[in-house]
């Protein structure tokens, strides 16, 4: 009997702001400095929240958000801050361990 595999989309499982924040924090930790990895995680969260509503709230184009928050994206800090605020997330910094 063959095993059936299904695509997994993390955006379908991010329901609460706490889950979204935990996912982004884990992505930052695991990124090892890879900005595209973090941008993609932020894109996953944005898709979970709704890209059209996010575009409206940030004043940024929906397609440009998809592009910036993809694995190939390299969003500017201003974009990251706007998106985080619109998603109800707050970025913070702490000393490295």
Q: How much strand? A: under 5%
**What class would the helix/strand composition place it in?**
mainly alpha
Q: SSE order, as H and E?
A: HHHHH
Helix content: 55-70%
The helix tally amounts to 5
Overall mean pLDDT: 92
Q: Outline, from the CA principal axes? A: globular
Question: How many DSSP-defined strands?
Answer: 0
Number of domains: 1
CA-atom Rg in angstroms: 14 Å
Distance between the termini: 48 Å
Query: How does the major sheet shape up?
Result: none
Poorly predicted regions are none
Kindly list the characteristics that best describe this protein:
97 residues, mainly alpha, 5 helices
Could you write a compact summary of the structure shown?
It is built from five helices and no strands. With 97 residues, it is an all-alpha fold.
What would your notes on this structure say?
By secondary structure, the protein is mostly helical. It has one domain. The protein has helices at 17-30, 35-49, 51-58, 62-68, 77-86. It is globular and about 50 Å long. The termini are far apart.
Architecture blueprint of SSEs:
Elements: H1 17-30, H2 35-49, H3 51-58, H4 62-68, H5 77-86
Helix pairs in contact: 1-2
């Amino acid at each position: 009997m063959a095993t059936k595999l299904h695509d997994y989309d993390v955006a379908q499982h991010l329901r609460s702001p706490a889950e979204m924040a935990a996912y982004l924090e884990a992505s930052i930790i695991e990124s090892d400095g890879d900005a595209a990895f973090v941008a993609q995680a932020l894109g996953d969260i944005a898709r979970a929240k709704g890209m059209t509503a996010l575009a409206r709230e940030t004043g940024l184009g929906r397609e440009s958000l998809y592009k910036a928050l993809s694995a190939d994206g390299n969003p500017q800090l201003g974009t990251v801050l706007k998106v985080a605020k619109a998603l109800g997330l707050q970025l913070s910094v702490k000393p490295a361990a």
